[in-house]
Design a protein that fits this description.
By secondary structure, the protein is an alpha+beta fold. The chain has a four-stranded mixed sheet with strand order 1-10-9-8. β6 and β7 form a beta hairpin. It starts with 5 loop residues before the first helix and ends in a 23-residue tail after the last strand.
């Protein structure tokens, strides 16, 4: 049985994201007006987390929102993503690791065409190899077998197959309207097959395709991410370092906005 319906689930997700943003910026403050210019390379982004990771980093088994805040969209990518930005007025799903997709008229087949320019982080045992369809198959097969925490999101999926290195086909037993939205959800990160197969510990190590690599962790203090030099979007990320700092106990005053504690960026070359 599904824990929540689709509308409640999505509203809760958006509410949690909003709460995270408010906590990072102290619930509000002086807003900047006017254009801020183009991003410049360099500098650090520091984000205040409300707690430390309690249940490990494995996206297949954790439901910890702190884990999501540290590795989803930073270390790991997904097949699809929700579009963000100042001009967004409604829920819109855009490509991430998949560059396009088709849904059969009967709703029983979803075909994803993957980007061909993506590589995994250059960390053993994955060692910077290309991202391929077998990784997507391994991720969702692992999800179906691992736990009931997230399995309900793909419950009608009967098979996941790789038609070739850059094409993945999901077959369903019945039409399932929210499936594409669930592929964009924070916890449905794509993992390297080596991790799913147990060649390293997904609970303690995160190897992804995202713009940042997991660099270090000081318990109850911070998680430090560093720029991925091989990220598939040229010029991204602009910051060279990102830190998620833990705040396990309430503070009497609001925390500073993340932008206020960031290191000044270097001028673009």
């Amino acid at each position: 049985m599904r824990p929540v319906d689709r509308r409640t689930f999505l509203l809760a997700t958006l509410a949690a994201s909003g709460a995270f943003g408010l906590s990072a910026c102290g619930g509000g403050g002086r807003a900047r007006s006017g254009p801020v210019g183009e991003p410049r390379p360099g500098g650090s982004l520091v984000v205040q987390q409300t707690s430390e990771v309690k249940r490990g980093l494995n996206p297949l088994t954790t439901s910890d929102p702190t884990t999501m805040g540290i590795v989803s969209g930073t270390v790991y990518g997904k097949l699809a993503e929700f579009r963000t930005g100042p001009d967004v007025r409604s829920l819109e799903i855009v490509p991430d690791l998949a560059e396009s997709w088709e849904i059969a008229p009967d709703g029983l087949t979803y075909t994803f065409h993957l980007r061909r320019d993506v590589r995994w982080h250059n960390i053993a045992p994955v060692n910077g190899r290309p991202f391929v369809a077998d990784d997507v198959v391994a991720t969702f097969e692992g999800l179906k077998q691992a736990t009931g925490v997230h399995t309900w999101m793909i419950e009608p999926v009967t098979s996941i197959t790789a038609a070739d290195d850059h094409t993945v086909v999901f077959s369903l037993e019945r039409p399932y309207g929210p499936l594409l939205e669930y592929f964009a959800y924070h916890f449905n990160m794509i993992l390297p097959r080596e991790g799913v197969e147990g060649q390293y510990d997904l609970e303690t190590q995160a190897i992804g395709t995202g713009p940042f690599l997991l660099d270090s962790h000081t318990p109850d203090v911070e998680w430090v991410l560093k720029r991925n030099p091989d990220y598939f979007i040229p010029g991204r990320p602009t910051s060279t370092r990102s830190a998620a700092r833990s705040s396990p106990t309430p503070r009497p005053s609001r925390p500073p906005c993340a932008a206020a504690v960031s290191t000044p960026a270097s001028p673009a070359m």
